[in-house]
Amino acid sequence: MYSASVFFNTESARIASRKDLVNVKELAELAKENGKTLVVTGYADSKTGAPAYNQKLSEKRAQAVADELVKMGVSSDKIEVVGKGGVKDLSPISYNRRVVVSVK
User: Fold this and answer.
1) Contact 78, 36 (CB under 8 A)
2) Cα(97)–Cα(8) distance, rounded to whole angstroms?
3) What pLDDT sits at residue 69?
4) pLDDT band at residue 83, thresholds of 50, 70 and 90?
5) Helix (H) or strand (E) segment spanning residue 4
6) What is the H or E stretch that residue 33 is in?
7) pTM of full prediction above 0.90
8) CA distance 103 to 89
């Protein structure tokens, strides 16, 4: 499965580094050429913020990346946006402040 990650700073839904979008753009092109759907899954780290706050933040992060995909020419009906809230899947904890874009 193809995927790309976009990282965020603490308590921010603004993409930390525009260079993270390079790999996302490749997925956008792949999806457009093959009529595929992209799943945009947002996460927050579980160490910062309450669960309800982290859920909203993860959704905002996912939407920020989905908006970039639309700017890249991906039809909004080919994008699924999911928020997973605060997680501690990865180490260091800052890696959990991310959005993962994957091809469905």
Assistant:
1) yes
2) 5
3) 98
4) very high
5) strand 3-7
6) helix 21-34
7) yes
8) 21
Q: Which residue has the tokens 């874009």?
A: 101
Report which of 17, 92, 97 is spatially closest to residue 61, judged by C-alpha positions: 97
Task: Indicate the length of the chain as a whole number.
Answer: 104
Selected residue with higher pLDDT from 24 and 2: 24
Residue type, 30: L
Find how far residue 30's CA is from the centre of its chain.
Answer: 17
- Sign for the pseudo-dihedral over CA of 85, 86, 87, 92: positive
Q: What's the whole-number mean pLDDT along residues 30-38?
A: 96
| DSSP alpha helix (H) spans, 35-99 | 51-71
The token pair at 44 is 């927050």
Please name which of 47, 59, 33, 62 lies closest in space to residue 96, comparing C-alpha atoms: 47
Q: Is 17 exposed, middle or buried (0-12, 13-18, 19+ CB in 10 A)?
A: exposed
